[in-house]
Amino acid sequence: MRGSLRLSILMIGRDAMVSNPSLHIDEELFARAKKLEREALEKLVESVYPGICRIAYGLSGREDVGHGIVRFVINHAMHHLRHLRDAASAQRWFYHFTVLVSRRGRKHEPAAEQDTLVAHSGEVSAAYVAFVRGLRALPFQQREAYLLTFGEQLLYRDVATGMDCSIAAVEVHLQVAQQTLRAMSGDGYEKMKERLTRAWGNLSPREEAIHPSVRGLITKLMWPRRIKRVLIIVAALAIVVGVTYAAWRFRHLWWRT
Questions:
Q1: Is 75 exposed, middle or buried (0-12, 13-18, 19+ CB in 10 A)?
Q2: Would the pTM count as exceeding 0.90?
Q3: Helix, strand and coil percent figures for the chain, each rounded to 5
Q4: 112-to-53, 57, 133, 251 alpha-carbon distances in Å
Q5: CA–CA dist 146, 153 (Å, integer)
Q6: Tens of pLDDT along 77-91?
Q7: What is the per-residue burial (b if ≥16 Cβ within 10 Å, else e) of 126-157?
């Protein structure tokens, strides 16, 4: 099961990301998923799954860490959906929570050659490896602003939502990050940035892998709910049986009164 849930990454090209760079959530689908309807819940998660994967794997730089982030985000989404007001608030929650959880992976820094942004760039060169290494060395706010803007290609307002800061702060972090990376890369900066954007797009899961991955993940995450429901039913039945037995066992006391 773990293997089927792991992000299936292939070189699918930049178009898969650019065609839908944001976590789009349909309002009607959200209303149904909020009630934890299984089919609607699967479709909602499928709609945001590619974006969550790209952000998780791209910000962390490690496949194993990214896999854990994706599972953690979807697990918590199942608990928080009912408390969200509408599709727009759900979109903001997914952006912010995915970035927030990704920050926990900062202590597991990837090796430059094994970084997801290197492994899925299509070609490896010493210059690009150095570029990614320099990017990972940036303060995390600058790194997030840069990757969410040029990787996920989000609007500043969505980057600000994910990072939980103002748009002005995003602009400052992004400007400083660009200055640092441009100074490091020199004339090759634009080429390095294009390769990074292409690598980020390649972090999208294959289309045919999304449904089985999401279905398997939700099935596994819903088991505790089912077990809890069964235990509640069993406990209720045990109480009814106990009360009924007690009434029958001491029926003579009732008859005397």
A1: middle
A2: no
A3: 80, 0, 20
A4: 20, 14, 6, 77
A5: 9
A6: 888 888 898 999 999
A7: eebbebbbbbbebeebbbbbbbbbbbbbbebe
